[in-house]
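Think of the structure tokens as a kind of shorthand, similar to the way a musician reads notation: each symbol stands for something richer, in this case the local conformation of the backbone. In the example below we present two proteins back to back. Begin with the first one, reading the sequence and then the tokens, and try to describe in your own words what changes along the chain.
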Amino acid sequence: MLRFFRLNDPYRLLALLLILCLFSLPMLIDPAMATIQELKSFLVGEALNSGKSLYVQLVDDTAPFTAWVFKWLEALFGRSLTARHLLALLVIFFQASFFGILLINNKAYNENTYLPSLVFGLLAFYSFDMLSVSPELLASTALLFALNNLFKEIEFKVQRDEIILNLGVYLGVASLLVFSYTIFLVGTLAILMLFTRVTFRKAFLLVFGFLLPHAIIFSFYFFWDNQAALAEYFYLPNLTLETWALVSFRSILVLAIVPILYFVLSLFMLNREAHFTKYQSQLLQVMFLWLLVAAVEIVATRARTPHSFFTFVPPLAYFISHYLLLIRRKRIAEMMLWIFLVGLLSMNGATRKGKVSLVNFATLFPSASPDLPVIKEKRVLVLGDEFEVYSKNEMAGYFLNWNLSKGIFEHPEFFQNVVFIDQCFQQDPPDVIFDKQNLLQPFLEKIPRMKSQFRREADMYYRINN
């Protein structure tokens, strides 16, 4: 296999697509249930397709470009996980192909090879949840385009204003898919200062390009006088360093044990055997710094899952490919590639089936609380953290993210909160309201019309059908 992908032949990418399809078959044939983030993507898409305006009539911190992608996916596929996984497979194939071509065009290795594309594709299967249309998968595509422009800028023979502007725009697009990817702007600026003759004008052009997509989004909300909602529910929540750890670091380390070992081996091999041109040496340092920036981003990510580490895939693919190419004995190199392949897929399959006790995916999925009554095919509003209720029901109302919504329900003394909830119930009334803390009661007292529409039983309100 190593010999096959070492050849500089674009048709090798067809073989890569076949390999990725084969590796994804177990996850397509026997898929896991929808994760919490996949369920949230369903709800966001359904809400936007029902006519709700993001941040104005949907209280959530999902990035705008990501939310609009979810809207299109829901319109095309509904809640079909298989369709989304197939689309994710195609995006991974595109990224792997683009990454290999990127390295060939920039002469990153002493030979032109599609091995990095193969390694990239394999790394994208280190965990089963990587095969999903996640915000990280979408944003990583924009980061690859940014990385391509960064390589061009470092090569002194190619320095044009449009390159640095495009670099900023791609970073801006990535941050509107995953806001914590803003950190890559700081990292990119640091890399440019280390490896290029960056001037104040070029630094300003980079920042201008980054801010351009944000300015377009802000202008759109400003036109409809909704800029306050954009700031309150997107920018301000995402500026905090609060992380929702859906999977522990221990589980991530166990999942990634094979890539980590091969990365360490690559560092030893590169230190001993590698002979680079000046430009290749610079690219190696850039990829190492890119990996460090990705590690910093993990600290700021809003929800930590295995697919949160997608930004690690390009630099790891770069270093591991170097390691495999530098092994002098072909049999050993081929054996190490097969060990890498089998190790990744074995860990993926074993952890997906729950056979590795050190890896716990329980919190990655919505889990039904035993004291919750079974509600199906209803329009539901949840005033709390019982997110799993939405797995078999539609979301009604405006309040998806409870961390952002609870401040409204905890302060019925504010007139604007009463008006907002009254507007919500008039435009999108729920059939059932889960309200353990009875936070709705003060609002019902202030809105008699709404009080007459609901009756309370235990921890829930039911709409009265007149």
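Once you have a description of the first chain, move to the second and do the same.
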Amino acid sequence: MYWTEFLTIAIAHLFAVASPGPDFAVVTRQCVTGGTKAGLWTSFGVGTGILLHVAYCILGVAVILSQSPALFNTMKYVASAYIFYLGVQSIRGSMRIEPQISTAAIEVNVQPRKAFVLGFLTNGLNPKATLFFLALFTVVISSSTPIIIQMMYGIYLAIATFAWFAMLSKIFGRRSVRDWLLSAGVWFERAMGAILILLALQITLNT
């Protein structure tokens, strides 16, 4: 009975998660500069952030956000400020890059908790994710769908999100790929910082 609904959700999520955004930029930077382990923990944080969106949609908080422009704008500006901060930090960090540092040395310093929190906040504060899940839970998912089924949808979305970014982490975390990207060193960090800053401005101006 719910297969059509589930397939619609799965396809919509596939297009959403595959499109470049703050999650993609942060996970890519993490796994390139910190290795696969950093990318996986960041991906885990991003996937867990999905559960936050699902939780407030089920509780009806998303409807309140959509009907309160002031509250939604506050959330939008907080998210933009956070992503902008990450971009600035990336550019500032490029000033301190040691050209000869090895990828193995970088990976040893990975802090799982910090990587997880980074992924969780990046996804959890993303207002575009809020709009996406609001659309799912008000347009695609019927109000008559049992809560337990909605929760199962949410678990699937969280797992699928983690799987997608974990795959990217495996690719970008490969030593050969990291060495190639890190050979650019300063310019890679500056490029990622610029992308994050542009995404922050886009959220502020277009959401």
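Compare your description with these statements about the second chain. Residues 69-94 form the longest helix (26 residues).
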